[in-house]
Amino acid sequence: MKFFFTIVSVSIITICSSFKVQLGIDYVIAAMKSGNASQVAKFFDKNIEISMPDKSNNYSKSQAELVLKDFFIINIVKSFDIIHTGENAGSKYCIGTLVTKGGSYRTTIYMKQRGDQLVLQELRFENH
User: Fold this and answer.
1) How many angstroms separate the CA atoms of 34 and 79, rounded?
2) In this predicted model, what pLDDT tens digit does every residue of 62-97 receive, in sequence order?
3) Which of 34-38, 112-116, 117-121 has the lowest mean pLDDT?
4) What Å distances lie between residue 52 and 13, 37, 46, 87, 89, CA to CA?
5) Which residues make Cβ contacts (< 8 Å) with residue 6, sequence separation at least 6?
6) Burial bucket for residue 93 (CB in 10 Å: 0-12, 13-18, 19+)
């Protein structure tokens, strides 16, 4: 009976952990669709690389949130359409088109597993 309980417990923990990881990137995608920099920033790693057509740099978590807020103020989001998602060795990524009032951007979201958390390490906005 103890063996059965152990197997069931381990299975539930594994399933919940996998679900949490998937939710991370889905949550970031939803925040991108609404242009909500604060919600995206919840997943920032300690440092994050943000690349935009006019600037590219590695920022601290707090600096990156300000940079993204400024980007969304200038480029009010209309939609975000997913082109491709995938994963590789514990990392997840999404490539999509961010449509804003200022134009369209090919957008890459790159997240990496850190312990039990999926963190955002790179955001790339390229003119489309």
Assistant:
1) 8
2) 999 999 999 999 999 999 999 999 998 889 999 999
3) 112-116
4) 39, 15, 19, 23, 26
5) none
6) middle
Domain ranges of the chain: 2-127
From 92, 102, 36, 99, select the one nearest 69 (Cα to Cα). Answer: 36
Taking the CA atoms of residue 24, residue 26, residue 29 and residue 33 in that order, the dihedral angle to the nearest 10 degrees is: -130
DSSP element (H, E) containing 122: strand 117-127
Supply φ then ψ for residue 101, to 5 degrees.
-65, -25
Q: Which CATH fold would you assign to the domain 2-127?
A: Nuclear Transport Factor 2; Chain: A, (3.10.450)
Closest CA to 27 of 83, 116, 114, 92: 92
